[in-house]
């Protein structure tokens, strides 16, 4: 993990990561985001709306991935946070998602959140489901057929939760 550097995402970082973002949502395998989302709408979604957004870079400054952190709900539900993680295709399998999840949990604690909840982890995303479970998240519910997967059709999503 020491080979990774986390910094708050800048607009320039977002523009650099935009092709990877497009590729991830266009695949329709993990994110319930319109596949043809515009860069401006994606920027608002990923960078403006959340409480904080980070990028993870390698030793050369190349962007490996990004995550956002925000309250999962408003008012009486704002003590539980939600995160979204994206890893560039070339960085998969290098521990980036694990590092982002660990970093986001620390950030969440520092921001006063008591728990983290993932609202819609696509059940066919076996790598992510297994990683989140290894990091202490439990599947607390499953929503049948809640995601239209590009390859498998309607698949389940999991709600995953961890007290911080």
Automatic annotation (TrEMBL):
<protein>
    <submittedName>
        <fullName>Acetyltransferase (GNAT) family protein</fullName>
    </submittedName>
</protein>
<dbReference type="InterPro" id="IPR052742">
    <property type="entry name" value="Mito_N-acetyltransferase"/>
</dbReference>
<dbReference type="InterPro" id="IPR000182">
    <property type="entry name" value="GNAT_dom"/>
</dbReference>
<feature type="domain" description="N-acetyltransferase">
    <location>
        <begin position="4"/>
        <end position="164"/>
    </location>
</feature>
<dbReference type="GO" id="GO:0016747">
    <property type="term" value="F:acyltransferase activity, transferring groups other than amino-acyl groups"/>
</dbReference>
<keyword id="KW-0808">Transferase</keyword>
<dbReference type="InterPro" id="IPR016181">
    <property type="entry name" value="Acyl_CoA_acyltransferase"/>
</dbReference>
<dbReference type="Pfam" id="PF00583">
    <property type="entry name" value="Acetyltransf_1"/>
</dbReference>
